[in-house]
Amino acid sequence: MKILINSQKKLNWFIHLPHFVSALIKILSRFISNNLSETIRKMMQKLFSDSFLMNYSFIGFKGKNNFSTLQCCSVIFEAVRSIKKYSDTPNMDIEKPIKNWMAQATQRIKMKNNK
Known about the structure:
single chain; mainly alpha; two-stranded parallel ribbon; 7 helices
């Protein structure tokens, strides 16, 4: 299952479907892994293309769009917290792997293009 939000248009479509959002939270919560970082990486990989993420930073630094205010960011937080193991995880612990994954989007694109 890959949703791959790869454009602003697809993101806008996603935002206006509340039933889809609640179903997505359930689906994403199934991508549990041994640790929080790996769990979030799997969720991000399924949801977003690197070409989309390279235009965002978590709080909008360097002239990029702000990811933290998007509904899809809230979906990731809700999906993580719906996993019993991570139900009490502080925001900061969820933010860090999201920020790391987003920061490497451009590098992943470059690596794909060099293959």
